[in-house]
Amino acid sequence: MTEVTRSPKGPGSVVGRIADVLQLLQDSMPIQRRIVRPGDSVYQVGQAFGTLYVVNSGYYKMVNLSGEGREQVVGLYFKGDWLGLDGIATAHYTCDAVAMDTGEVWAIRYDALIQAAAHTPALLTALHEAMSRELTRDHESMLSLCTLPADARVAGFLRYWAHALAQRGQRTDQITLRMTRAEIGNYLGMTLETVSRALSRLARGDVIRFSEKGRRDIQIPQVDALTAFIQSTVAPMAAAVH
Amino acid sequence: MTEVTRSPKGPGSVVGRIADVLQLLQDSMPIQRRIVRPGDSVYQVGQAFGTLYVVNSGYYKMVNLSGEGREQVVGLYFKGDWLGLDGIATAHYTCDAVAMDTGEVWAIRYDALIQAAAHTPALLTALHEAMSRELTRDHESMLSLCTLPADARVAGFLRYWAHALAQRGQRTDQITLRMTRAEIGNYLGMTLETVSRALSRLARGDVIRFSEKGRRDIQIPQVDALTAFIQSTVAPMAAAVH
DNA sequence: CGTTCATTTGAGAAACCTCAAGATTGGTGG
DNA sequence: CCACCAATCTTGAGGTTTCTCAAATGAACG
């Protein structure tokens, strides 16, 4: 375990760990702050790699483009997440990182990071944990894509978003999605109509509620209900044991 | 197009780079060699993380298990690939790494690797490239899963396997799959019957051929035909421009 | 040389997609 | 503040892909 100055949020908490990494970077590295607006690209596919970006605020999607125009959202990113890790191997970014809201990213030169890590090993730990976390997250995405029906994937998406907010100390009973139905559908491997129908069914079953403010504000009375719903779609006969 | 066949061992070739990494590890790190047999786990989910494994020979799959028994193959690994990277973030492995054939992996203590990297920076580069490559590969998997019909995903799987062999200096016109139809289907998000039908259709269209030796030996006269097939499924009306 | 597992193929069912029409929302200019 | 426009969202009906269930064939192994 690396010994980093702990944030006031409490040692060991996820909120604290995310804040700690940002603090650590700020203290030990040359950081270039960059404000982005909705739709801005942090970096684009094909661009020469050289810098990593750590999210300080805002919401971001990573979009993979195939040669012939197929387009795929392959990841969502929040405060404390790292962008640009895909570019290390080939020295070119392989995706577009797009801001879904106004926010701030911290640009960090990869070579400078490696140098600074020589006398601040915690930097290396932070980088490796970020990459490892993303691998695990990708694997969970594949698990959802391949084993869950559409409604459960949407429920899983909401749970993931709520969990990401909770980890960052924000309330999770009411979340505001930064994505259109089409973007959600692309991320989850279904059409926008299927997303809409899935949300309607979840609302009908009282797993979620739509706020009066608009269809992108969703109330989640209890996150556990989402988990229960997902499990019910995959093992509907769990009680029938004899 | 990658030029692998021309000078398989030449400097700068992919074959050379994979061999170089193995050589580097061997020269600069304490390595523990470990022989595995088909079905053996290199490591298992939940186990405490501590060591990474680099494939020296054999074929491996990474399997993600959800709590309730859902099971998902999330990656395939060949010579030179790293196993165990998912364990860094949480200090516990999050998947099972399973050998699909007899082979040898090199066990490397993560902390020893970090220490050795202090005076051999190339070790760090190799680790980061491995993680970054896997991220990019995961993104490509998601792209396939979400945007391609079943037949094209099977074609993409064969192309991926052939490409992996070509990068390692092996012939690619005849490949022996180490996976059952059920495993392939799990990896590609479809049932074993759909895999079987897709292979039959590819054979009928002469994109592949079955060897007389058995249904797991597949001849690929030209890898480009697989690419053409994939593109034909996603843009069938490409010629109709007016 | 039988037993077991893997594979192929068919027929019907289910999930999801496509196409289409309204309804709602958010932004913009009058 | 209101009216309008463009984009987004919802819902329905019908079509397509893929899954499920089933049976037969082929391969592997003691």
**Percent range of helical residues of chain A:** 40-55%
Instruction: Find the CATH superfamily of the largest domain in chain A.
Output: Jelly Rolls
How much of the sequence lies in strands of chain A comes to 15-25%
Order of helices and strands of chain A: HEEEEEEEEHHHEHHEEH
Quaternary status? homodimer
Q: What integer value in Å does the Rg of chain A equal?
A: 19 Å
Total number of helices of chain A = 7
Strand arrangement in the largest pleated sheet of chain A? 1-8-3-6
Overview of the molecule:
The structure is a homodimer of 242-residue chains. Chain A is of the alpha+beta class and 242 residues long. Chain A has two domains: 124 residues, Jelly Rolls, CATH 2.60.120; 94 residues, Orthogonal Bundle (Arc Repressor Mutant, subunit A), CATH 1.10.10. In chain A, the strands form three sheets. In chain A, strands 1-8-3-6 form a four-stranded antiparallel beta sheet. Chain A has a four-stranded antiparallel beta sheet with strand order 2-7-4-5. In chain A, strand 4 and strand 5 form a beta hairpin. In chain A, helix 2 crosses helix 3, helix 4 crosses helix 6 and helix 5 crosses helix 6. Chain A is globular, with a radius of gyration of 19 Å. Chain A starts with 13 loop residues before the first helix and ends in an 8-residue tail after the last helix. At the A-B interface, strand 5 and helix 3 of A face strand 5 and helix 3 of B.
